[in-house]
Design a protein that fits this description.
The protein has helices spanning 4-14, 18-31, 33-46, 64-72, 85-96, 135-145, 184-194, 207-226, 234-254; strands spanning 54-58, 77-82, 104-108, 120-126, 146-157, 197-204, 262-268. It is of the alpha/beta class. Strand 4, helix 6 (135-145) and strand 5 form a beta-alpha-beta unit. Helix 3 (33-46) packs parallel to helix 4 (64-72), helix 6 (135-145) packs across helix 7 (184-194) and helix 8 runs antiparallel to helix 9. The longest helix is centred in the last third of the chain and has 21 residues, at 234-254.
Length: 269
């Protein structure tokens, strides 16, 4: 399943209007359960950081997390980086027109080449590590880029059905993934080897979250991969489906999951 073409189509739709982009960010906040989990963790971590924290949004994509963090924390200085130059250019254009223009910057960067030393109080990597073959190198780069006592937050698919892979014969729902998901112990070991301490890994997308993901993400994306003609149908689809997904998300974020298709990991230097 190709996800990047759908993202490019969305980008063409929202890039002409700052208002549309803000509506798009708001929609992502509602739809994506990972955003619910990440926002909750950010609220906890923000209380442990300096008031004027320096933050790296690693793999910033559309810039929705830069937007969210900048609005949550009025003194944070945030740098977004992404390997896709189109995302970087679009973020630069949009954020230049906002009140966050003085506290945000965007650069094209392959995270394997990140060479900052003790620069950031927080590194956030959402839906990034599953796209990178040389993950150990990138984790070491994150460690080097953090200041002492800095924090790393990672959200990524787990090996318990992440990317909709449930056995060895399945393939990832997203073709752009280089791995189907991480095991808790695997990611803990890799983070510890990179130098991190106090590594915490919890499952997200338990049973309620997985059903919500099927309804709100997998089925619509499959339709859009069949034909772009389904775009006009999506608003009606979500009007019917989203109330159920919303309730399922509430359950997921307040439950402790013995297993789940996502992992939310926090570590510090």
């Amino acid at each position: 399943m190709q996800y990047d073409p759908i993202k490019r189509n969305l980008a063409r739709f929202i890039n002409g209007s700052p208002l549309l982009r803000k509506v798009f960010y708001f929609t992502l906040d509602l739809l994506l359960l990972r955003t619910w989990h990440v926002k909750r963790r950010l609220r906890v971590i923000s209380g442990l950081l300096p008031e004027n924290a320096s933050v790296l949004d690693a793999g910033c994509g559309f810039g929705q997390y830069t937007w969210r963090m900048g609005r949550m924390n009025r003194n944070w200085v945030i740098r977004g980086v992404d390997i896709d130059g189109r995302h970087v250019a679009e973020c630069r254009k949009f954020f230049a027109s906002t009140s966050l223009s003085q506290r945000t910057s965007f650069d094209r960067l392959d995270l394997r080449l990140l060479d900052n030393k003790e620069t950031f109080d927080l590194v956030l990597a959402v839906d990034v590590m599953e796209h990178i073959d040389e993950d150990i190198k990138v984790l070491k780069n994150f460690y080097n880029a953090l200041k002492n006592n800095g924090y790393l937050i990672i959200s990524t698919p787990s090996d318990k059905g992440g990317s909709d892979v449930h056995d060895e014969n399945d393939r990832s729902f997203i073709d752009e993934h280089v791995r189907n998901g991480y095991g808790k112990d695997e990611l803990r070991e890799k983070l510890s080897a990179a130098g991190f301490r106090n590594v915490s890994a919890v499952y997200t997308y338990g049973k309620p979250g997985h059903i919500s993901w099927l309804l709100s993400m997998k089925y619509p994306v499959k339709l859009l991969n069949i034909s772009r003609l389904f775009f006009p149908v999506l608003p009606v689809y979500y009007l019917i489906v989203y109330p159920f997904a919303f309730i399922l998300n509430i359950f997921d974020i307040h439950m402790i999951h013995k297993t789940g298709t996502g992992l939310l990991v926090t570590a510090n230097k």
